[in-house]
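Researcher: First entry.
Model:
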Amino acid sequence: MTVDSERADSTFAADGDGGSETVLGLIAAPGKPAQLVAALRDELRAALEARVPGVAWRIEVVEDSLVDPQASGTELVGRAREELLDRDWDIAVCLTDLPLRIARRPVLAHASPVHGVGVISVPALGAVAVHRKAQDRVLRLVDALLGESEEVGSSAGPGRQRRMAQRARDLARDTEDGDASGLVLTSRVLTGDLRLLAGMVRANRPWRLAARLSRALTGAVATGVLALVTSDIWRLGASLDGARLTLVALAAVGAISATLIVGAGLWERARHRGVRHQVVLFNLATTITVAIGVLTLYAALLVLALLAAFLLVTPEVLGDVLERPVGTGDYVRLAWLAASLATLGGALGAGLESDEAVHEAAYTHRAGDRSGSGPDVADD
């Protein structure tokens, strides 16, 4: 493994954040990717300073294949993330000589804004104008890692440049927070990096989390159906007040969230103080993503349970079990409890999901086109 670094010019525009610089790490597999990065480095720095005005850039190059040829795209992102943390980079782009697949789809390039990592498959660039295509892809991946859309027709105006410059400076502000306690640092990240955090969570599309986890979804639906046809659950639901039902719901949401985060190893630990800011930001984005995804699942289960309760459980049957006249409130409490139990069933299903499946579900990657011929990148 070889490491080479180059210091960017320390001159900032008037609105720069004097003294800090944003570090882009380029990880190149030995052979053609390494040769390509060596030829690109100087041009990339100049292009980045023009693309993101007011930000000083430092580019560091590492030659490493990272993973074996049988590794998945998710594993490659994970290894590149480890390299980013070990070397205290702000964002990283990996140029690999392997075919690239994300969510079992072949792609040219993709970016994971939460990880701060982008990956390019050099063979997919083709044989013509490889230098130009590679530079274009790296710049587009940097855009995505700074929270800007890579879609066709995205605005390239001054507002977009200001947003990218601000996010680049936010990523670079690690040193002064490195010695803060965990609680203080978390508070600073929440208040100072709120825009960056929101962009990372939005890029993950958390509302689609549960739909990507087939076992968790199957467990939730099966448990919900069982709850709705069990008379003991009808009695239990009718006996619980709003406070207790809320506690049961929170426990269910917490259970499946903890199962996903802990079970699949989504929680990241800081290797040294210099990267604590990055790690806190990553863990906050992961926790919020999973929480929103699980809450979305819960809301969907609640609506479905309410509709199913009105459809399957007639007032006469429910009244016979409860031994009193029933009203809308009884159906709401029944659906509320059934949705909570269904979510707990989803937690059991989530425990059966593979780590790779959970990673793919929790972190939406912006994926490039399959052919490699087009200059634009679209979301998967």
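Researcher: Second entry.
Model:
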Amino acid sequence: MVNKENILLQRIVLGVGLALMTAKFIAFIITQSNAILTDAVENIVNVIAAIIGLYSMMLVAKPKDECHPYGHGKAEYVSASVEGGLIVAAGLGIIIKSVYSYFVPYELKQLDTGIILITGAGIINFATGFIIERKGKKNNSLILIAGGKHLQSDAYSTAGILCGLAVVYFTGWIWLDSVIAIIFGLVIIYTGYKILKQSISGIMDAADKALLNNIMQTIEKERSHNVIDIHNMRIIKYGSMLHIDCHITLPYYFTVEQAHEEIEAIDQIINQKNHNQVEFFIHADACEDASCPVCPKTDCKVRKNPYQTQSGWTLENVLKNKKHRISNQ
């Protein structure tokens, strides 16, 4: 269901992008404003990125197969990388064009009509981007998050351009038109850089410490007293899906069936909070004598050492491939 909603939202992004691109180019034709052209060119990038994003989402929605045992979720990061690259390229193109226009005089026409068209486009851009980004965060979709941020940054650019055009309109300082475009060209480049950085981190499976910490705290809070610790935890994102590997320490005398029940309980805890978008691979480790001081199991009949305190789950000890124990042991 999440994938279908994401695809529908991305189609909305594409439709809005096409409509606004048309409106902005009409405004440029009417006014011949370099700043308005800057805004229109960025919308071309929006449309191209939306098309790529829609294709990627349709690819991500495909089920797992023999060639893609983890699904097709990584396509989202590739799409976001392309979008980030296009944004940077658009920013550079805008700056080059604006520098040239600064030194080559040109005439502005019907600036008031252009301002009205751009104002309406900016409002629609921001509202759409805000909604899309929120939905992207809820559905854990990098494509929607990147697209939403892009639309909002486009709206901020439009707001700045409108302020500058108002000054141009009342003062007649045409040179300011190109200066405004250069400034917002730099803003666009920075936006593209941030999207590129995030997408490349996803492709490289960089550790998301905030997500790791959230998963760890959820397991610790909801775990049964049979789970002594969790360690060697890793999370990989595949689009809206999360793939989690970890080890848990259980009493050494547990049967395979008892160990499986504890693993299933953890799986259910996490999936209930993540809309069944988590795939777990949990390895059960047997406890050791050194585990006793941090083991909260009160009915253990083979305890070798008295319980002292919980080890205190932190990213430092959860990420290590080592069972928890009191630090002085």
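Model: Note on the second entry: The chain has a mean pLDDT of 81.
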